[in-house]
């Protein structure tokens, strides 16, 4: 498939499906189209962001700085604590 796309005439409308999906994803998340997103940049699941803010009581500004692993660890610690 890549060979067929590369064989097409080069113009702005000739792009691979993967590139199109990547660009649409950037638009959906309000990321500049020309910016690069590395595979290391993982997002925290929406449900986890919501529970950390609404149930745990963390400020939104702190939650956005967490890695997915840190967020999961905080939620695990919260759910395991004695009440």
List keywords for this structure.
83 residues; single chain
Q: Your description of this structure?
A:
- The protein is an all-alpha fold.
- Helices cover 55% and strands 0% of the residues.
- The chain is built from five helices and no strands.
- Helix 3 (46-56) crosses helix 5 (68-80).
- The model has no long low-confidence stretch (mean pLDDT 80).
Helix content: 55-70%
Low-confidence stretches: none
Number of strands: 0
Quaternary status: single chain
Q: N- to C-terminal separation? A: 57 Å
- Run of helices and strands: HHHHH
Global geometry = elongated
- Beta strand %: under 5%
Count of structural domains: 2
Instruction: Please state the CA-atom Rg, rounded to the nearest Å.
Output: 19 Å
Largest sheet properties: none
Number of helices: 5
- The overall average pLDDT, rounded, is 80
Structural class: mainly alpha
